[in-house]
């Protein structure tokens, strides 16, 4: 919680109220801990009771029933075996030793289903549409076939990967750097918020792989002398359905005109558009559709719940959750920059280790926020949907939808920031009286009902007064943030490299 006495040693009114806030939150924490211990004890007893009762019921069930269950289980295992038995390791793909070594360094022992399905087709030179759940290894699924061919070709400007956000572009570059470490592969990241001149210099060094956001890449294609993608062999659209949306329309269409028609094209995402017209824009040539799951699904290791939180007490419900999951790595999603920044201020006033990430922050602040969260120095990241797709932070324990996402795709990508690469994770969505229709639409798309968490109203009532006081202070500080932003905006407008791309 926040520091108390001011420098003079006198406690001001404001500090007094935050002292009360701290004491109260401390009390809630102690009670939560005690409750947790009680629940754990009950669970243990329950488990003992179940173990005895299970063994009883097993003896009652007829043999053929349990055999039948056993048979189904064996069949399922056999089926799974069949599908992926062909590729038990990355060596089975016939990759260059340097690539196999890089996979081992990354502890990629066994290809994931999307990798087992997509890599062979990619190695055969086919265009790909890759659809697989969040956190299932799609990045390596498209990077490996490209690096394998680059190993033989070694030509500059070999492949270009487009990403809808800067943070994801940096992350994709890191994957190429790691997988290409043994083959002197040169990768550059071309995104907004960074000086055009430095990037032009990087591009003149003839890198093999360019990972970029569409707006800034187009700036260079149109203004950087001597730079073109005429020699390009591969174009990848990661989070393809997002890139094919209107927002990126003009930039993407222009880029598609400036790259060779004769090339390989890969589209990957956890949610794909079925609008053929959109897909045709990417001018795929007889693509192979590698769909590990045929519709939008979230991973089984993700526990998804919701809390009915009237809009007037949504912040109190949020603070209760942050208190309940103290010490866990949490991403909070909001629908607007204002909600994002204000929530970060509110959390900070109440002493939580929280940092904001949204498109109105400078690029250095955005990178700083992500690094603080990844390193664990800030355990709570509150973000807009700029962080919804692709970000791979293995330590995320919990995703909270402070604002319900406006569509099921965004929901899938947001909650997919946890429970990645086979790990478990949890998501909680705060549903106000205005979100019920949205919730229904999302449950229908997922074909799954979100379990409802019951919250102790008395706990909310106790906490509400304190949170409300902090909220008033947060609004005041948010207004100052907005003022500063306006000043900075005026300064940037005078700058020479106004970013064109989306945030
Ligand atoms: N074969 C593998 N074995 C083990 N871990 C893997 C393997 N392939 C990828 N990973 C790890 O799984 C995590 C998720 O990978 P990646 O970010 O590519 O998932 P994704 O499918 O692109 O997710 P999203 O849909 O959210 O973008 C990463 O930490 C990556 O290092």
Task: Describe the protein's topology.
Elements: H1 13-60, H2 63-85, H3 97-105, H4 113-123, E1 128-131, H5 138-153, E2 159-162, H6 166-179, E3 187-190, H7 196-204, E4 209-212, H8 214-223, E5 234-238, H9 240-243, H10 249-258, E6 264-269, H11 276-281, E7 288-291, E8 302-308, H12 314-324, E9 330-333, H13 337-349, E10 354-357, H14 363-375, E11 380-383, E12 398-401, H15 408-415, E13 425-431, H16 436-446, E14 451-452, H17 457-493
Parallel strand pairs: 1-6, 1-7, 2-4, 2-5, 3-4, 5-6, 8-13, 8-14, 9-11, 9-12, 10-11, 12-13
Helix pairs in contact: 1-17, 4-5, 5-6, 8-10, 12-17, 13-17
The protein binds adenosine-5'-triphosphate.
Q: Would you mind describing this structure in some detail?
A:
This protein is an alpha/beta fold. The protein folds into 2 domains: about 60-290, 3-Layer(aba) Sandwich (Rossmann fold); about 300-485, Rossmann fold (3-Layer(aba) Sandwich). Helix content is about 50%, strand content about 15%. It has helices spanning about 15-60, 65-85, 95-105, 115-125, 140-155, 165-180, 195-205, 215-225, 240-245, 250-260, 275-280, 315-325, 335-350, 365-375, 410-415, 435-445, 455-495; strands at about 130, 160, 185-190, 210, 235-240, 265-270, 290, 300-310, 330-335, 355, 380-385, 400, 425-430, 450. The strands form 2 sheets. A 7-stranded parallel sheet has the order 3-4-2-5-6-1-7, with helices on both faces. Helix 1 (about 15-60) packs across helix 17 (about 455-495). It is globular. Mean pLDDT is about 85; it is low at about 1-10, about 50-80 and about 495-503. The chain binds adenosine-5'-triphosphate. Adenosine-5'-triphosphate binds near residues 115, 132, 136 and 420. Adenosine-5'-triphosphate binds near residues 134 and 140. One of its GO terms (biological process) is rRNA processing. It is found in: Nucleus. Interacts with the SSU processome.
């Amino acid at each position: 919680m926040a520091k108390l006495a001011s420098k003079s040693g006198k406690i001001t009114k404001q500090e007094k109220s935050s002292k009360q806030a701290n004491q109260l939150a401390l009390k809630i924490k102690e009670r939560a801990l005690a409750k947790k211990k009680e629940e754990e004890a009950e669970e243990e007893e329950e488990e003992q009771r179940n173990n005895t009762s299970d063994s009883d019921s097993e003896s009652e069930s007829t043999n053929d029933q349990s055999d039948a269950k056993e048979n189904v289980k064996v069949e399922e295992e056999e089926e799974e075996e069949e599908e992926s038995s062909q590729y038990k390791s990355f060596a089975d793909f016939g990759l260059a030793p340097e690539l196999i070594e890089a996979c081992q360094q990354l502890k990629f022992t066994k290809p994931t289903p999307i990798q087992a399905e997509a890599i062979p087709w990619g190695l055969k030179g086919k265009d790909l549409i890759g659809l697989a759940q969040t956190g299932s290894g799609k990045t390596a699924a498209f990077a490996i076939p490209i690096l394998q061919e680059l190993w033989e070709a070694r030509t500059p400007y070999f492949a270009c990967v487009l990403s809808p956000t800067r943070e994801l572009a940096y992350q994709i570059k890191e994957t190429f750097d790691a997988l290409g470490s043994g083959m002197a592969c040169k990768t550059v990241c071309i995104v907004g918020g960074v000086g055009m001149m430095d990037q032009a210099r990087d591009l003149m060094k003839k890198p093999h792989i360019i990972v970029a956001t569409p707006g800034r890449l187009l700036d260079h294609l149109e203004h950087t002398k001597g730079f073109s993608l005429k020699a390009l062999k591969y174009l990848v659209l990661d989070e393809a359905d997002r890139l094919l949306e209107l927002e990126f329309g003009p930039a993407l269409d222009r880029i598609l005109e400036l790259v060779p028609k004769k090339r390989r094209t890969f589209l990957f995402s956890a949610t794909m558009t079925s609008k053929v017209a959109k897909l045709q824009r990417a001018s795929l040539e007889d693509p192979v559709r590698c769909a590990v799951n045929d519709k939008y699904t979230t991973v089984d290791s993700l526990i998804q719940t919701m809390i009915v939180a009237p809009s007037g007490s949504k912040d109190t419900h949020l603070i209760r959750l942050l208190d309940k999951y103290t010490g866990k790595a949490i991403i909070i999603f909001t629908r607007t920059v204002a909600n994002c920044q204000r929530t970060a201020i509110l959390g900070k006033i109440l002493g939580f280790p929280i940092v904001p990430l949204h498109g109105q922050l400078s690029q250095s602040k955005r990178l700083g926020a992500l690094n603080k969260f990844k390193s664990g120095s800030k355990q709570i990241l509150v973000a807009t949907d700029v962080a919804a797709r692709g970000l791979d932070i293995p330590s995320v324990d919990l995703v909270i939808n402070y604002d319900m996402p406006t569509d099921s795709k965004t929901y899938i990508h947001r909650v997919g920031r946890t429970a990645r690469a086979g790990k478990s994770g949890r998501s909680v969505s705060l549903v106000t009286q205005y979100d019920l229709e949205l919730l229904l639409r999302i449950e229908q798309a997922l074909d799954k009902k979100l379990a409802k968490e019951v919250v102790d109203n008395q706990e909310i009532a106790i906490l509400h007064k304190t949170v409300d006081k902090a909220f008033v202070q947060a609004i005041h500080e948010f207004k100052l943030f907005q003022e500063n932003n306006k000043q900075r905006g005026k300064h940037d407008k005078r700058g020479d490299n106004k970013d064109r791309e989306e945030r």
